[in-house]
Amino acid sequence: AQSVAQPEDQVNVAEGNPLTVKCTYSVSGNPYLFWYVQYPNRGLQFLLKYITGDNLVKGSYGFEAEFNKSQTSFHLKKPSALVSDSALYFCAVRDIGSSASKIIFGSGTRLSIRP
Amino acid sequence: EAQVTQNPRYLITVTGKKLTVTCSQNMNHEYMSWYRQDPGLGLRQIYYSMNVEVTDKGDVPEGYKVSRKEKRNFPLILESPSPNQTSLYFCASSTFSGTGANEQFFGPGTRLTVL
Predict the structure, then answer these.
(1) Contact B100/A96, CB-based, under 8 Å?
(2) So what's the pLDDT on residue A88?
(3) d(Cα A75, Cα A62) in Å, to the nearest integer?
């Protein structure tokens, strides 16, 4: 069965410092991986995805994510955090094949950037 | 403007009173899905639809019904709501390729309280 884990409920970073939000996954085949961001009182917005190819994926707002197959991880990163990056971040995974339509989300990580 | 709309945005009801939350998308997406968001649990998929008249259960379908009679609409029906269905609900849509659902567009959410 597919699963996603976001081991940190909250990540606190000073503005200008690099940030990492962790995500690990489990699927039976090759994963499709996604990151979404949720600002207060809003729906989720797509940030980036990994399907195949380069392990480093670039997305919106300067975010990138690194796919690591051996560690089954897909950590979200940004070289220099902004206060406006403060939000709730979700990792999601879907399998291919018969489970391709089912999407599993992690529990979310609240990112707080202090000025 | 490409969007997913949900109505109502806020709803307070009583146990057992049937309700419907509507969802509509204007992007001609094949795939639509309903999620509920609860603190500490992230998003959990309730039902999804890969096209008109094609629906399937997600991880938490109990107590919910859906239908997909038109491509743009995917209503969520609670026949007999109970307090444990108090939650924040999101509808989402995406394209659907041969390998499955792609990145999703989310509606603004419906906050449901069942007394």
Answers:
(1) yes
(2) 96
(3) 14
Which residue from A46, A104, A106 is facing B104, i.e. has the nearest CB? A46
Which parts of chain B have pLDDT scores under 50? none
- Chain A, chain B: beta-carbon pairs less than 8 Å apart: 69
Amino acid at site A67: F
Which amino acid type is present at position A42? Answer: R
pLDDT value for A97: 58
Q: Which two tokens stand for residue B25?
A: 């998308």
d(CA A36, CA A103) in angstroms, rounded, equals 13
Q: Which two tokens stand for residue B68?
A: 């997909």
Q: A17: Cβ–Cβ under 8 A, 6 or more apart, which residues?
A: A80, A81
Q: Does B103 touch chain A (CB under 8 A)?
A: yes
Q: Are A22 and A71 a contacting pair, CB within 8 Å?
A: no
